Each structure stands twice: as C-alpha cells, then as structure tokens.
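To: structure desk
From: M.T.
Subject: fold request, one chain
Message: Could you run this one when you get a chance? Sequence is below, nothing fancy, just the single chain.
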Amino acid sequence: MGTTLTPEFWERFAVLLVAAMAVTYVLAALSDALAVRSAGRHGSGPAARAAHRPTGAGHRTAAGC
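Reply: Done. Structure tokens follow.
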C-alpha cells in the first residue's frame, strides 16, 4: 500500500532538518572552542616551550627571499 507525501510532511521535514543542522553547527562550534581553550591551557607550560627550541649545531636559519 503506497502513501503520498503531503505538503504538511515536507514542511515539517524542512523545519526539522534546519533545526537539526543548527544544533549540529552550534555543538561543533562549542566543542571546537573548548578544544582550543584546552590546548591553550596545556600548551603554555615549560615542556611546550622547550619543544620549539632549536637543537645546537644542526639548526640552520631560514634564508630570506
């Protein structure tokens, strides 16, 4: 038995689809902000600064163009 999709169905479907996309976008933005904040807190320690230091004689400066 086949059913027809009414205009009311499509209207409800569109509203729910837009709402789901909006919720997904907001949750993704919040999780990204929390990840950046967390990385900023953990990356400011002395170990993070030591990782970016050049190592002795093997270090060469970049040539300017």
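Reply (cont.): The mean pLDDT is 82. Let me know if you need anything else for the meeting.
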